[in-house]
Structure formats: C-alpha cells, structure tokens
Amino acid sequence: MRLTRAAVLARAKAAALDGVRRLNCWGSRLTDISICRDLPNIEVITFSVNGISDLEPLHQCQNLSELYLRKNNIASLNELFYLKNLPRLRVLWLSENPCCGSDPHRYRMTVLRNLPSLQKLDNQAVTEEELSQALIDGEEITAPPARRIVENGCPESTQSSVADSTAETESDLLNFSLEETNKIREELGMKPVPRDKFSSFSHRETDCNRKKRNNVLNAILLLTKELDVDGLEVVQQTVGRRLQALQKKEQLQEE
C-alpha cells in the first residue's frame, strides 16, 4: 500500500507537505513511502508495524530526528546507507526486522558504526563504550542495497512485503512497548500511560475483547481503502469526535 499525499496531510493535520513535522502511520500496512521525498521538514516519523522494505525515500529528510521502523520488512542493513547523511537523526527503532539477523551484537554494532550520532537505538540508550566498540565489531556500509528486479518490473522486496505485513497476528499488533504506546497516544492528543500502569493497561482486555476489537479494526482498515478523500475526511471527523468523548471520560475518571 502506498502512502499518499492526502493521507499524510490528513494524519499530520497540515495544509502542505512542507509543513509536516510529525507523521504517525503505525500499523497502516504501508509498503511504499516514496512520498517522504517531499517532506523536507519532517522531524518525527512512526512507521512501525508495516511492510516497508526500502528506506531510500528518507534520505532527503534532513530534519529527521526520530524514526520508528519496528516490525517492517527491511531485509538488509545496507538500507542504513540512506540514513547515514541525516545530520539530526538521534533516535532509531529498527528491531524485529529481517535485517537484524540472529546476532544482536553484530546488528547493534553495525548500526552504531554507520549512525554514530544516535542517542537511542531500539529504545536503549547508546553509550560511548558502544560507539568505540562499533568501530571494531561493526561493518561499514558504503553502498546502497542491490535490488533484484522480478518479472513484472517491481523490486522483489516490495512483492513480499504485502504478505508479511498482513501476516501480523493479533498478539503482534498488541505487543508494543510503553514508548511506542505513548507516541501513538501523543499523536492522538491523549495523555501518556505512566510506566507503573503500563503492564495492566496493555493486558487489561480479555481474549474475547481483544479478538473482537481486532476483527473490527481489520474491517475498518479494509473499508478505508475503498474511500476517496472526501470519505476519509468524514471518517477523520467522526474519529476526532469519538476521541474527544473518550478523552473527556478518561479525565473524569482520573479526577
């Protein structure tokens, strides 16, 4: 699924692409993020739980400081080539991608060798000792990944990403961390979940309720694919009113 200009403007509540500073597309089944080439002022991007395999569109996002890519279809660490010249990138979440491989140490050292300005990788602070060790144990990436073209003319990685994205299980979609939970809540204008309440928050639903919610969510996602811009705006307004009502209820409960 391609991320469109209309979707970006709607999610970011911006009038133009150059006015987009933050973009949250968590769990949107995206495979094509080429629109990012037209986001020169973007600072925070949340693309976790999608089917993204190509990071080339991000190489022009010179103001990007935080990038969340957990659970995508990034097959090669050579994709880091496109992030190496982003001067402000300080936070990267890349875990649970195929490129992480079976050797966590080699993976982390390679990322830090190529992105030494990172302050946090996969929700873990980067230390000076790690940066020094990365020069020894990490692999230097000097070229972009080679993309093999299949018969229909599309990159092979894009072909597999759709199946991988839709294969997310219910437990996968619900099993995200405190930081990402609060990132999503922040984008929706909701209060963050305190660390001491996160465990009960993330597991408070019964299996039956989780299954029901997941079925409803999947149905909504499928239906939104059939809507045009006007239809999506109606959905956005309805969701906005629903969120306001829930936030008000939540505030009353806290008081």
UniProtKB/TrEMBL annotation:
Cellular component GO terms, alphabetical: ciliary basal body; photoreceptor cell cilium; U4/U6 x U5 tri-snRNP complex
Domain named U2A'/phosphoprotein 32 family A C-terminal: residues: 104-122
Keywords in alphabetical order: Leucine-rich repeat, Repeat
SMART domains: LRRcap
Family matches, as PROSITE patterns: LRR
GO biological process, one term: cytoskeleton organization
Matches recorded under PANTHER family: CILIA- AND FLAGELLA-ASSOCIATED PROTEIN 410-RELATED (PTHR18849:SF0), LEUCINE RICH REPEAT PROTEIN (PTHR18849)
Subunit structure: Found in a complex with CFAP410, NEK1 and SPATA7. Interacts with NEK1.
Protein function: Plays a role in cilia formation and/or maintenance. Plays a role in the regulation of cell morphology and cytoskeletal organization. Involved in DNA damage repair.
Name of the protein in its database record: Cilia- and flagella-associated protein 410
